[in-house]
UniProtKB/TrEMBL annotation:
Protein name: EamA family transporter
Tree of life domain: Bacteria
Keyword Heme: no
PANTHER family associated with the record: INNER MEMBRANE TRANSPORTER, S-ADENOSYLMETHIONINE_S-ADENOSYLHOMOCYSTEINE TRANSPORTER
Cellular component terms per the entry's GO annotation: plasma membrane
Subcellular location: Cell membrane
InterPro entries named in the record: AA-Vitamin_Transporters (IPR050638), EamA_dom (IPR000620), EmrE-like (IPR037185)
The species this protein was found in: Paenibacillus rhizosphaerae
Primary subcellular site in the record, as a coarse category: membrane
Family stated for the protein in its record: Belongs to the EamA transporter family.
SUPFAM superfamilies listed in its UniProt record: Multidrug resistance efflux transporter EmrE
Membrane-spanning segments: 12-33, 39-57, 69-87, 99-117, 124-145, 151-170, 182-202, 214-236, 243-263, 269-288
Keywords: Cell membrane, Membrane, Transmembrane, Transmembrane helix
Length: 308
């Protein structure tokens, strides 16, 4: 079952994680490498960085059942699919348009959590979610793609958001069975393997990239992955996936601001107003979003297959 309380106030790791993942789109834009290569090395370098801390968990890793290995591998597959689609979308559309679509994640998570985990939320929390999503949509109103490439980028971001929602729902289930560190290590490594297979099959070069790109691969591993996704995986022990996904609504705000400061992408009045709305809705949700699960357990009787 999920643990009752984190060793520090939840908003602290949430704030760190949101800030860290906000840099992800900037790093992706900076690199000239294909999205599949960026994703592969991002996850591979993260797994390598985790290796020195794996020894205390070696016994737990070896004790994983075949069923758990399959679930972890599935989670890794959907994480890789998310990165492939979302990072690919950034090659076609703006940071604001791509990250704003990630605001759909709480909707997919809440729906999935209701069907698979029987989680419900209060009216106040739903109101906060609606306000935050409305604000997130407002951010991108002045930047909605109108060209064919931009529309394709928007579609890739939608599909990437669906993929990460599946990844998060599996993660919520798995961290109740295995330590979050073991979960993260196996998922990141399996996602890197998925990318490697994809790149090999597509004939994408593994090494033909300048030193600048290798530095960006490392930044992607350290900043948004270790201080973002790894931190969020750890938080799944204490809060539902729906709460974490709702908090990630802060990413469009942070990413749009960073894109303005670093990439020179303009912020419109719609985006500014939307950012304020998203933050207000997020505050309401985090204060009122107490999800209820079935009394006996957070984990349902095994569904056909739960949907990062």
């Amino acid at each position: 079952m999920r643990k009752t309380s984190a060793p520090l106030p939840t908003f602290i790791p949430l704030l760190i994680g949101i800030t860290a993942i906000s840099f992800s789109s900037i790093f992706v834009k900076w690199s000239s490498a294909p999205a599949s290569v960026q994703g592969m090395y991002r996850l591979l370098f993260t797994a390598i960085l985790m290796l020195p801390f794996l020894k205390p968990h070696w016994k737990e890793l070896r004790a994983l059942s075949i069923k758990n290995w399959l679930l972890l591998g599935t989670s890794g597959f959907f994480l890789a699919l998310h990165f492939l689609l979302w990072m690919g979308s950034l090659k076609l559309t703006s940071v604001s348009s791509s990250t704003i679509i990630l605001a759909l994640e709480p909707v997919f998570i809440v729906i999935g959590a209701f069907f698979f985990y029987k989680e419900k939320t209060s009216a106040a929390a739903i109101s906060g979610m609606v306000v935050a999503i409305a604000g997130a949509v407002l951010i991108g109103l002045g930047d909605i793609g109108v060209s064919r490439d931009n529309l394709l980028g928007d579609l890739l971001s939608v599909l990437g958001t669906l993929a990460v929602s599946v990844h998060m729902l599996i993660g919520q289930k798995m961290v109740a069975r295995v330590p979050s560190f073991v979960y993260s290590f196996v998922v990141f490594l399996s996602a890197a393997v998925v990318f490697a297979v994809y790149n090999a099959a597509a004939g994408v070069s593994f090494t033909a990239y300048p030193g600048r790109d290798w530095g960006i691969f490392l930044l992607l591993a350290v900043v948004p992955t270790v201080f973002g996704h790894l931190l969020f995986n750890w938080l799944l022990q204490y809060v539902p996936a729906s709460t974490i996904s709702m908090s990630i609504l802060g990413e469009p705000v942070g990413a749009s601001l960073l894109a303005f400061l670093i990439l020179g992408e303009a912020i419109t009045l719609f985006q500014l107003a939307g950012g304020l709305l998203a933050i207000a809705g997020l505050i309401v949700f985090l204060n009122a979003g107490k999800f209820k699960s079935r009394p006996k357990s957070d984990i349902p009787v095994e569904p056909a297959h739960p949907a990062p």
